């Protein structure tokens, strides 16, 4: 797998300590050095944020939901858990979660094809948000991994079906992660307004790299 070396400019793409807006229906990416912390904020309390983490020196290694579920032996990560890559190596450690902890690790990122099936031919989606944000940073992923869907309330029901409900987060709820390696992180303020997961009103969110 090809290794991508980042320039000094792209590795300091956002100002540490300052909140960065992830605009509603759009994505944003940032480089975070090993050992630094990132705070992800549900600014309005109703927004799902699709969240990805890549090895900054190898886009083919990334935070993997299927490997995390095996490693953690549960569906929903919680504070104190270490997220792992598709090579089963630590990539992020979750330090804090002020929300009720209702997140999703099962659902693929929405994409053009998903919205076509829902009856919309031209709709913003998290897959395009990921690629646009990473290309803007000068980082090209090898594929679109399954995201860690922060605050997404899509439980598996007793009959085996999947429920689609609004978030149970509060305004200002946040998660804090520490990078276990140099990482490129991407955040998408999910554009979903057909199903109720964003209360059918996508809003912006924020993240902050803590120096």
Radius of gyration: 16 Å
What is the beta-strand fraction?
25-35%
Q: How many runs of DSSP E, i.e. beta strands?
A: 11
Give the SSE string.
EEEEEHEEHHEEEE
How can the largest sheet be summarized?
Answer: 6 strands, antiparallel
Structural class: alpha+beta
Pick out the low-confidence regions.
1-9
Global morphology:
globular
Count the domains.
1
Q: Classify the helix fraction into a percent range.
A: 10-25%
Give the strand order of the largest sheet, numbering strands 1, 2, ... along the chain.
Answer: 1-11-3-9-7-6
Question: Could you walk me through the main structural features you see in this protein, from its secondary elements to its overall organization?
Answer:
Mean pLDDT is 93; it is low at 1-9. The protein contains three helices and eleven strands. It has helices at residues 65-72, 112-117, 126-137; strands at residues 20-22, 27-32, 37-42, 49-55, 58-62, 82-84, 90-97, 148-150, 173-179, 183-189, 205-210. The strands form two sheets. Strands 1-11-3-9-7-6 form a six-stranded antiparallel sheet, covered by helices on one side. The protein is globular, with a radius of gyration of 16 Å. Helices cover 12% and strands 29% of the residues. The chain has one domain (19-210). The protein is α+β, with helices and mostly antiparallel strands.
Question: What order do the helices and strands come in, and which of them pair?
Answer:
Blueprint: E1 20-22, E2 27-32, E3 37-42, E4 49-55, E5 58-62, H1 65-72, E6 82-84, E7 90-97, H2 112-117, H3 126-137, E8 148-150, E9 173-179, E10 183-189, E11 205-210
């Amino acid at each position: 797998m090809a290794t991508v070396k980042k320039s000094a400019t792209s590795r300091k793409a956002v100002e540490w300590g300052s909140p960065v807006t992830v605009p509603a229906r759009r994505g944003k990416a940032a480089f975070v050095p090993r050992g630094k912390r990132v705070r992800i904020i549900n600014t309005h309390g109703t927004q799902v944020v699709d969240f990805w983490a890549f090895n900054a020196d190898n886009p083919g290694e990334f935070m993997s939901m299927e490997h995390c579920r095996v490693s953690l032996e549960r569906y929903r990560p919680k504070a104190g858990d270490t997220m792992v890559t598709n090579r089963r190596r630590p990539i992020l450690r979750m330090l804090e979660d002020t929300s009720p902890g209702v997140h999703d690790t099962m659902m693929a990122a929405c994409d053009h094809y998903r919205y076509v099936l829902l009856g919309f031919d031209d709709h913003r989606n998290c897959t395009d948000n990921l690629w646009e944000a990473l290309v803007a940073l000068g980082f090209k992923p090898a594929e679109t991994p399954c995201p860690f869907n922060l605050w997404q309330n899509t439980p598996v029901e007793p009959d085996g079906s999947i429920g689609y409900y609004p978030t149970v987060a509060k305004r200002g709820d946040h998660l804090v992660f520490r990078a276990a390696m140099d990482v490129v992180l991407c955040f998408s303020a999910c554009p979903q307004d057909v199903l109720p997961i964003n209360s059918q009103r996508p809003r912006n969110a924020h993240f902050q790299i803590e120096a």
